[in-house]
Amino acid sequence: MPKRLKCAVIGVGKMGINHVRVYASIPQVKFVGIGEVNKTLGEKVASQYGLNHYTDYKDLIMAEQPDLVSICVPTSFHYQVASYFLRKNINILLEKPIATTVDEAKALVALAKKYKTSLLVGHIERFNPAVKKVKQIINSGKIGKVTSIIARRVGGFPFQIRDANIMVDLAIHDLDIVNYLLDSLPQVVTVSKHRIHTKTREDSVEYFLQYKNTSAYIQSNWITPVKIRKLLITGSEGYLELDYITQKIEFYKSNYDKFKEETKGFSDFILKFSSSDRQIISVAKKEPLTEEIKYFINKVASNEQVVSQFAVEALKIALT
C-alpha cells in the first residue's frame, strides 16, 4: 500500500478553511495540522477537525514534517511563507496571486526549480469543469477562430480583503483564463483603473487585451450589487456563453453560411439571424477547489513537478 502523503494548511481564514474542509475529506492523505497566527481561530478549527494547531508554521514543519501544504495567508506574506517552504523541499499549493510583485513571483518560480519542488498557484478557475469543457470546444474548432472574449467578474465589496486591490483579487482570474484558452499572451494591454468607494486601493478595473488574432475585454469590480461571473466567447463559427458559478455553457452555431445560401433579402436575413439554434452543453458539476487539490496531491504522489509560470504571466498583466 502506497504511503499516505502528510498535508497541512497554513492560514485558515475565509479561503484556508475551505482547503481544510477538502483535505479532511480525502482519505489518500494524512492531515497532520494547521498553521494559524490567530490562536483563537486556529484552536477552533483544529478542534473541529481533530488536528494539531501551531501559531508558527516553522514549528509545524519541525513537528509534523509535511510532504505538501496549502498556503492561504494574506498576499503580502506569500513570498515570505512560500519561499521558506520551498527551501525546505515541501511542495506547496499557494493561493493566488502568486505574490505582490513580479520580482517576488519570479523568485518563487526560481526557488521551486532550484529545489525541484512543486509550486502550484491556485488559479482555481482552471479546474472549473465548465472552463475545461470550453477549452476542449475551442481546441476542437467547433466555434472556428476565436475573434473576441468578454469576461465579467463583478460583485459587492469584500470587507474581509484588506491587502489586495481588484486587479489581483478578481481580474487576475480572467486574465489567466483568457491566456489559458488562447494558449498565448497578449501583445498589447490597455487598462483603466478606478477608486470608486475607497481611496486606498482600486475597486474597479477594465482591461482591453490584444492577442495575435483575438481581442479580449475584462471587467472586474467591487461596486456592482449583483454577483456575476460570466465569460462570452465569439468565434467565426459560433458563440459560447459560460457561467462560472452555475457551470452552465450555452452554444450558438453561426448561421452565416446558411444566410449566404438561402436568403434573398435583408428582411430574410434578420429573421434567420434572430433564430439561431441554441444548445446547452452539460458538464458534470464539480467543486473547482476539490479538483485543484486532488490534482496537486496526484502530482506530488507521482513525483511530477509542477511550476506555475502561468501565474507570473497573469500577475504581470494584472499589475500593468
Explained architecture:
It is built from eleven helices and 14 strands. Helix 2 (about 40-50) links the parallel strand 2 (about 30-35) and strand 3. With about 325 residues, the protein is of the alpha/beta class. Helix 4 (about 80-85) runs parallel beside helix 5. It has two domains: about 5-125 and about 290-305, Rossmann fold (3-Layer(aba) Sandwich), CATH 3.40.50.720; about 130-245 and about 250-280, Dihydrodipicolinate Reductase, domain 2. Helices cover about 35% and strands about 25% of the residues.
Write down how many β-strands occur, each being a DSSP E stretch of 2 or more residues. Answer: 14
Task: Report the C-alpha radius of gyration, rounded.
Answer: 22 Å
Strand order of the largest sheet: 8-9-10-7-11-12-13-14
Structural class computed from helices and strand pairing: alpha/beta
Classify the helix fraction into a percent range: 25-40%
In a nutshell, what does this entry contain?
α4 packs parallel to α5 (102-114), α5 (102-114) runs antiparallel to α11 (309-318) and α7 (166-182) packs across α11. An eight-stranded mixed beta sheet has the order 8-9-10-7-11-12-13-14, covered by helices on one side. It has a six-stranded parallel beta sheet with strand order 3-2-1-4-5-6, sandwiched between helices. The chain is globular and about 65 Å long.
